[in-house]
Amino acid sequence: MNENASPAFLPPPPDLTLPRVVTMLHRVAHLAGAFPIVVGLLVLFGWWQNVELLKRVVPGLVAMNPATAVGFICLGIALTLLAHPDRRPSTQRVARAFASIALVIAILKLLALVTSLDAGIDRVLFHDKLLSADGGLPNRMAPNTALNFLLLGVALLIDRAYRQFLALATAVISLFALTGYTYDVQFFYGIGSYIPMALHTALTFFVAATGILCARPRSGIMAVIASNSSGGALLRRLLPAIIVLPVVLGWLRTVAQRGRLFDTHFGLWLLMVTIMIVMVALVAWNARLLFRADLDHATTERTLTWHAMHDPLTRLPNRLMFIEELTKALDRGTVAVLFIDLDRFKVINDSLGHLIGDQLLAAAGKRISEVLDEGQLVARIGGDEFTVLLPGVDRVEQAVEAGRKIESAFQSPFVLKPHQVFTAVSIGVALSEKNETPLDVIRHADIAMYHAKARGRARHVIFHPTMDAAALRRLDLESGLREAIARGQLRVFYQPEVEIDSGKIVGMEALGRWERPGQGLVSPSEFIAVAEETGLILPIGRLVLREACRQSKEWEDRYKIPLAVSVNLSGLHFQQATLLDEVSDVIRSTGIQPAHLILEITETVAMEGAATTIGVLTKLKALGIQLAIDDFGTGFSSLAYLKRFPVDFLKIDKSFVDGVAEEGNDTAIVQAVIALGHALGMKLIAEGVESLEQVEQLRVLGSEIGQGYYFGTPLPDMGALLEKETAG
Question: Which of 459, 569, 581, 598 could form a Cys-Cys staple with 626, CB 3.0–4.6 A?
Answer without folding.
Answer: 598
